[in-house]
């Protein structure tokens, strides 16, 4: 394994990316090839993979085993859970989320891509773009992932034909563009052999673009959240009441976006009370400023009733609070989501009661048409919903902030996550339909 000094790592940028694709498209093999060929695999890890592969009668090591760590994954040869891997090259550090391909595990792709700046979507060159490919492209667009790589895999099984690659790349790019994906980079690869993953392929002279790793190392990373609207969801109120700190009252949390400075005027939401930051504690030491994603404690000039779930924002840049949310959602539970469904809505550190007032539309993946008022969303469906909350929430538009514009719906009976939601407009935004849901007696 290559060694990279701590000083060198400190000077590199960080890229979070996720892999996605249909079943058996080769996601785990691609990840294993990336780790192996970039010298990011420890010797004992590789030896363990070689032993496991030999016990299964395979001549060459199965690099997919580098990420498929669960016993069921190894036995079935599939990916079930999101596998996170951390590796680095001299040019960049990476946090990689290898996500499952099966339809029933689409919820895990949502999890893996929710914090990604880039998504690698694999396509089997023999099968082309299939429904699950379209679903993953739609989720990438829905989650506002700024960069998408189309990796056309198993080119060795189609004779490395340029025409096969070109047809798949054209079809996918047209579909992704219609979804609003800002950038698509297509790369022909063979993850099993190693063509165009880390090293350029000698079998595809007709391709002059970057390898997958070259693109990952050079793609612009523009996730500077320090310049976004400043937001701090309060996680905990620190009140030691000790002899050393008899009057200390601090409000702790991880800064979701933006920068806070001593002297800034801030507003507490949803109450709307305003005050001034008198101090910021970071790792037990006072600082003059702090920014995302640091975890800090803010000290305020006035004694205001603030508790977990409140949101601290700049006084001049406060989002509107509302009890009515229009959002695009991806339903991830086996239990369907229906109009009138009573749920818990978790936004940041705040959880409130809510009800699904309307489901204006469901997205049809084949042609991106909108099925109006389906009344229900089944597992893996993407659609628009209108939600009424029991208490006002300070929600940003997801297009402005991925952190404070997102939420999840939870089953109040057993705590199951039902739906992942993004506030505001999206590629699936329907035309307004005048068909208000009937009031079922919930008084909020």
Topology:
Elements: H1 6-10, E1 13-21, H2 27-37, H3 43-55, H4 71-76, E2 83-88, E3 92-98, H5 106-113, E4 118-124, H6 131-142, E5 147-153, H7 162-179, E6 184-188, H8 212-218, E7 232-233, E8 236-238, E9 250-254, E10 259-261, E11 265-269, E12 273-282, E13 285-287, E14 289-291, E15 295-300, E16 311-314, E17 321-331, E18 337-338, E19 342-347, E20 350-363, E21 370-372, E22 376-377, E23 382-394, E24 406-410, E25 417-423
Parallel strand pairs: 1-3, 1-4, 4-5, 5-6
Antiparallel strand pairs: 2-3, 7-16, 8-9, 9-15, 10-14, 11-12, 11-16, 12-13, 12-15, 17-23, 17-25, 18-22, 19-20, 19-24, 20-21, 20-23, 24-25
Can you put this structure into words, describing what you see?
This protein is an alpha+beta fold and 444 residues long. The protein is built from eight helices and 25 strands. Strand 2 and strand 3 (92-98) form a beta hairpin. The longest helix is centred in the middle third of the chain and has 18 residues, at 162-179. The strands form five sheets. Strands 7, 8, 9, 11, 12, 13, 15 and 16 form an eight-stranded antiparallel beta sheet that branches. Strands 2-3-1-4-5-6 form a six-stranded mixed beta sheet, with helices on both faces. It has a six-stranded antiparallel beta barrel with strand order 17-23-20-19-24-25.
